[in-house]
Amino acid sequence: MTGALAFQFYFFALLAIVSAVLFVTRRNPVPAALWLVNVMFALAGLYVLLEAPFVGVIQVLVYAGAIMVVFIFVVMLLNLGRSAVSDLRGLAARASAGLVSLALLAALLVVRRPALPELPAREPTDNVVTPVAASLFTEHLVAFELTSLVLLVAVVGAVLLAKRREAA
Amino acid sequence: MITESLVVSAILFVIGVLGVLTRRNALILFMCAELMLNAVNLSFVAFARLHNVTGEVFVVMVMTIAAAEAAVGLAIIIALFRHLGSVDLSSLRSLRG
């Protein structure tokens, strides 16, 4: 990985990490959600660099475009503008959270330590959806159909949960 | 690039964990869970680059489940807000011993 490719990769990687840190440190949910959208855009860039442009497009459409809009919509619905008090946990909880996070990061970095081969860039191609679709609709057809059932159950459950109960 | 992607994925996941452990706002907690799902997706895509396209299929599945999870989770948050008048998890104390 050299030159322009390396620059693009580190640009998007840095953008993702910085946006994630800003996301987690915002007190107000609305800027937090917008920084999370930024993380998702940066990740879409990384997916394209990893030669998965279809996943990158889906990332922008579904994650940044649909899921995060639902989050913002709930913030608006509940009128959670700005809160006077911080929602941070106490000092002891924060310190132990930092320790747990450090341990987890160390464990993850040790797990990935064996060096993976650096693959040469593939030939540019228009054929980006067909391989995913071929695998999705043949090898993983049952799982794909089951996700549709999961979505149906989730929609029914969400309506039932959020429905205002009649005063009994 | 694959190794570096896995490092970025680990860092993003840990930031998500840190958010879940230090915040009390239920909405922020949900967004941190989404961040962790995204970090895992990044390693799926990196391994898809290394092996075959199955990793990308997994990412599509993860996104579907994340959408379902967001719908149900946000409905629960709305119900919680109606019940308690806040989304602060420290106000949930009926199970505290």
Q: Give the helix level of chain A as a range of percent.
A: over 70%
Number of helices of chain A: 6
Largest sheet of chain A: none
Based on Cα principal axes, name the global outline of chain A.
globular
Order of helices and strands of chain A: HHHHHH
Question: Would you write up a description of this structure?
Answer:
The complex is a heterodimer of chains A (168) and B (97). Chain A has 168 residues and is mainly alpha-helical. Chain A has two domains: 1-85, NADH-ubiquinone/plastoquinone oxidoreductase chain 6, subunit NuoJ (Four Helix Bundle (Hemerythrin (Met), subunit A), Up-down Bundle); 127-168. Helices cover 74% and strands 0% of the residues of chain A. Chain A contains six helices and no strands. Chain A has helices spanning 3-25, 29-49, 53-78, 91-111, 129-139, 141-162. In chain A, helix 1 runs antiparallel to helix 2 (29-49) and helix 2 runs antiparallel to helix 3. The radius of gyration of chain A is 21 Å and the shape is globular. The termini of chain A are far apart. The relative contact order of chain A is 0.07. The mean pLDDT of chain A is 84. With 97 residues, chain B is mainly α. Chain B has a single domain (2-89), classed as Orthogonal Bundle (Helix Hairpins). In chain B, 79% of the residues lie in helices and 0% in strands. Chain B has helices at residues 2-22, 26-50, 54-84. In chain B, helix 1 (2-22) runs antiparallel to helix 2 (26-50) and helix 2 runs antiparallel to helix 3. Chain B is elongated. Chain B starts with a helix and ends in a 13-residue tail after the last helix. The relative contact order of chain B is 0.13. The model of chain B has no long low-confidence stretch (mean pLDDT 87). Chains A and B meet through helix 1, helix 2, helix 3, helix 4 and helix 5 of A and helix 1, helix 2 and helix 3 of B.
